[in-house]
Amino acid sequence: MLGNYQYLYHPLEKLGIKFITEKQLNNLKKLGINSIYDMFYYFPRAYDDRSNIKKIAELRMEEYVVVKANILTVSFAKTKLGKTAVTARITDGTGIMEVYWFGMPYLKKSLKIGEEYIFIGQAKKTSIFRFINPEYKLTSAQKKITTDEILPIYSSSKDINQNILRKLFEKFIKSFLENIEENIPISIIEKYNILNRKDAIREIHFPSSIKAIEESKRRFAIEELLILELGILKNRFLIESSNKKYDLSGKKNLVKNFLASLSFELTSAQKKVIKEIYDELAAGKIVNRLVQGDVGSGKTMVAMVMLIYMAENGYQGALMAPTEILANQHYIGVKDKFEKLGLKVEILTSSIKGKKKNKILEEIASGEIDIVIGTHALIEDNVIFNKLGLIVIDEQHRFGVNQRNKLREKGFLGNLLVMSATPIPRSLALSIYGDLDLSIIDKLPPGRSPIKTKWINNSADLGKMYDFILKKIDSGSQAYFVAPLIEESEKISLKSIEKLNEDVIKRFPNKKIAIIHGKMKSKEKDEIMLKFKNKQYQILIATTVIEVGIDVPSSTIMCIFNAERFGLSALHQLRGRVGRGSMQSYCFLVSESKTDNSIQRLSIMEETQDGFRIAEEDLKLRNSGEIFGLRQSGFSDLKFIDIIYDIKTIKLVRDECIKYLKENKGEIKNIYLAYDIEKKFENNSINN
Ligand code: ADP
Ligand code: MG
Question: What is the pTM of this model?
Answer without folding.
Answer: 0.72
